[in-house]
Design brief:
A: Glutaredoxin, 2 domains, seven-stranded mixed beta sheet, 6 helices
Chain lengths: ~200, ~240
């Protein structure tokens, strides 16, 4: 505690001495600038943040799943389009609450480079429930069945719904855990990503 | 990493809960400091509350202004509980402006108010570090150091732990500093200088830095400027107090 007391007194005395304090500021400026330059990221070097991982700033992990009542669909095939990945289950009330907004948005952006994918957590629900749900909400966008729960694990799903907004380069730009997402929140995020233009 | 806390059927966002806890602890500490510094604690509580509310409103309105046509078509969306439709910068500016207006209108001296806020801000910064540990945000750059942790598909510097340790040390230093007689402005500008210095050093280990000119870490440049300004302000406050003495 004595060292602390001496240091504080010394600093107090220095801060009152204009010349000494300016010298200290200059030293801090030089050292800070050197540290900033020394820890700069070499131009063009990748630091691994773009590797596939289910968080914003990373490549969206790739998957291929069977569509409800149809063939398989692969995320890789959608490169070049903005993709909204929505993880849902029929027993989840906020998933139910946000589904009409997703359907409305899917319909109004039908002519744009946008794909909404509803990934049904079939492993935690049932295919029959998924079919009834799609009928109830009259969903026209692709519903993919995660029968083994592999995509849920790949996307580290901890709560439903979870929505991932993926840009044209396949990079996740925003993750929304929980819901319901308001239609305006969906539209504004999608519009921003669509405005970034094609690759 | 514990982003979601499952309490029965409820999935609670744990980082958000930690931040709320941080606001609560900060408010308690601010009231205690205000009482000791002979400032009305109710004034300080109102200042924090109003700034927070105006900050949140500003963040939502700032976002809405960017998508004005969408919000004019559906004004109800302004009240939506979607955190992704908040603009942090506009929120910060609105909150700070609200605080400044309140301080001016109540004719309170600014520096003693900032000093009374200081321990609370230091506690909140600790909560931010803990929230980053829980969410996995503010993650480190890939590294092979023995204490690297596996996060987001790579072994990385545990930058959230560095940040939390730094915030805890700064909190300790601030509590020590403000328990001793010093000059007005010393606690506040010391906190700013210490956090800016910590960010300047620790940003070098981050894997999510925003880059300037594709190479310089933006947060380091900003932190260095803030650090130098805080040191200059500290010197000025010290000289002003010694001139008055």
């Amino acid at each position: 505690m004595r060292v602390e007391y001496v240091m504080m007194n010394q600093l107090n005395a220095w801060s009152r001495d204009r010349v000494r304090w300016r010298r200290l500021i200059l030293i801090v400026a030089v050292l800070g600038a050197a540290w900033t330059a020394g820890s700069a990221v070499p131009a063009g070097s990748a630091d691994g943040t773009r590797a596939p991982s289910p968080r914003a700033g990373f490549q969206a992990p790739l998957f291929s799943l069977e569509r409800l009542g149809g063939d398989a669909l692969s995320l890789m095939d959608l490169r070049g389009s903005v993709v909204v990945i929505n993880l849902w289950a029929s027993w989840c009330p906020p998933c139910r609450a946000e589904m009409p907004a997703l359907q409305k948005v899917a319909k109004s952006f039908a002519d744009d480079d946008l794909m909404i994918l509803g990934i049904h957590m079939t492993a935690q629900d049932s295919e029959a429930n998924a079919v009834a749900f799609v009928r109830e909400y009259n969903l026209s966008f692709p519903i993919l069945l995660d029968r083994t729960g592999a995509v849920g694990r790949l996307y580290q799903s901890r709560a439903l719904p979870t929505t991932f907004f993926v840009d044209r380069e396949g990079v996740i730009r925003e993750v929304v855990v929980g819901g319901p997402l308001h239609e305006v929140a969906l539209r504004s995020t999608i519009e921003s990503l669509l405005q970034e233009g094609g690759s | 990493m514990i982003p979601i806390l499952q309490i029965g059927p409820l999935a609670v966002q744990f980082p958000g809960l930690l931040l709320l806890g941080g606001v609560w602890a900060a408010t308690l500490l601010i009231e205690r400091t205000a009482r000791r510094n002979k400032i009305n604690p109710d004034f300080m509580t109102n200042l924090v509350f109003v700034s927070l509310v105006v900050g949140i409103l500003g963040a939502r309105l700032g976002y809405a202004l960017r998508f004005l046509d969408l919000y004019l078509a559906q004004p109800g969306a302004l009240l939506a509980l979607n955190a992704n439709t908040l603009s942090p910068l506009e929120g910060l500016i609105a909150g700070l402006l609200a605080a400044l207006v309140i301080v001016q209108r109540k004719r309170q001296p600014l520096l003693p108010i900032l000093d009374a806020l200081t321990p609370g801000l230091a506690v909140f910064m600790l909560a931010v570090g803990l929230a980053h540990i829980a969410s996995g945000d503010a993650f480190g750059s890939p590294s092979n150091v023995p204490w690297a942790v596996e996060i987001w598909t790579a072994r990385r510097h545990p930058s959230q732990i560095y940040e939390t340790i730094a915030a805890a040390l700064i909190l300790w230093a601030i509590l020590r500093l403000e328990s001793k007689p010093g000059f007005t402005g010393s606690p506040f500008f010391s906190l700013i200088a210490l956090h800016a210095a910590a960010r300047l050093i620790l940003e070098a280990f981050r894997g999510d830095s925003l880059l300037l000119f594709e190479t310089l870490r933006g947060a380091q440049v900003v932190s260095l400027c803030v650090l130098l300004l805080a040191l200059a302000a500290l010197g000025r406050c010290a000289r002003t107090s010694s001139n008055h003495a």
